[in-house]
Amino acid sequence: MTLIATFWGTLLDILPIAAIVFGFQYLVIRKPVKRLPQVLMGFFMVWVGLSFFLVGLEQALFPMGELMATQLTNHEFLPILAEGAQRHWSDYYWVYIFAFAIGASTTIAEPSLIAVSLKAGEISGGTIDPLMLRVAVALGMAFGITLGTWRIVMGWPLQWFVFAAYLLVIVQTLRSPRSIIPLAFDSGGVTTSTITVPIIAALGLGLATEIPGRSPVMDGFGMIALACLFPIITVMGYAQIAQWRATRTRSANDLTPM
Amino acid sequence: MDLVVSLAHQFKDSLRDLAPVVLVMAFFQLVVIRQPLPDSLALIDLAFGLVFVLVGLTLFIKGLELGLFPLGENLARAFVKKGSVSWLLMFAFALGLGSTVAEPALIAIAARAAEVVALGGLIDNSVRAQNSFAFALRMVVAASVGVAVVLGVVRIFKGWPLHLMIIAGYMLVLLLTLFAPAEMIGIAYDSGGVTTSTITVPLVTALGVGLASSIKGRSPMLDGFGLIALASVMPIIFVLLFGIIGIHLIPGVVP
Lengths: 258, 255
Hints:
- Chain B: InterPro entries: UmpAB.
- Chain B: The chain crosses the membrane at residues 18-37, 43-64, 85-113, 133-157, 164-182, 194-215, 227-250.
- Chain B: It comes from Vreelandella boliviensis LC1.
- The complex is a heterodimer of chains A (258) and B (255).
- In chain A, 78% of the residues lie in helices and 0% in strands.
- Chain A has ten helices and no strands.
- Chain A is flat, with a radius of gyration of 23 Å.
- Chain B is an all-alpha fold and 255 residues long.
- Chain B has helices spanning 2-33, 43-82, 85-101, 104-120, 127-158, 162-179, 182-194, 200-214, 220-223, 226-244.
């Protein structure tokens, strides 16, 4: 039943974009589509695939993310509280470790990130190491998610964190080598794949539901935003360090003959 | 036969995407938490769900590569060659809008957001109100990506510096946050990251790089990439505006 409903729903989701591309193709460009059967086959696969993906998401990824949040904040799992004592934020350390592990592991092996970092290494002419770049993005992502969970535990407004991050991004943008800027901004988007977004969202909503005094409405969202912002910061940071090291070796080389 | 081979290849990629998540969770379940799964969550259901995710994602991405991507790239090239700026801008808008509407992550998150916002009392707690909220949210995000792509294309033509536009976008976000209802702020910030995944990134990058390499004096590296950055700031602005004004314009949603 849900499968049929999902199939119908995704059909309505795909129709607009199909209408747009075919409309432009036949009404504006007025040329026949090359290899039409293959293209139609592709659209059919997109439809079936999207439906299966959404069903699987509801059945596995969302419940798994929420289950982890529930179990990691369960009072039997957390350290024992002294009589009448308040929970300290550090009691939730397994939550932070889990968030960090999920962020780092999903990012470091991301195929699109590997492709982008190899390309960036080529263009920079050796000052940027592709592996280090990947590590920088993964660390940024992991730090962003961990900070997001910590924010939910503390219950502080999301905008403070986002504005602080914006400020850092702006300051770094003005000081970074220009060629790295578009790449850095893109790396924020690359990290959030179709699989990681639902998991992170479920984790955040689950945490906000379980932790006393937090509500999913006010605190549940925001992890994805932070996960997208911090890779920008770490990538520009890495580029700045790489540039600084390059100029230092150069000036050291200039000095040695003296 | 080729199709089977490339499907198998894509399946391996999807598996590599999913494996870290499953491994980290399995490690935590077996080593750290060591509790049985709750009754509502049978292991067999989870396993089937994961297989659905894998098969679905594989078919989805392969289908994009067969159908939408070649079509979109051909169109982008044809419009650049045609030389008509107004048509190109219209196409850019349609491409951004259309590719975001069907984004799986956005569909999932919009439905979640509607549930949560209904709980918080910002919208009516009925299935109909939730559905129209989720739909409106997706349309707003899609339109914002459309506008972002148009702006990005104009930027490539004019050679405006990307970082100034981003900083201006951040300022707008800052300003609008002061006026937006608190329930919408988290959702708005998150919608910026949700849009830039499977469909939008390759299509939009193809348009940007194609344009930048066909216009004299623009480098694909410097000018081709910025589209994604714009596409992740614009949704925040639009969803905040939606929370301030738009939400009151849909009939039967606000209690």
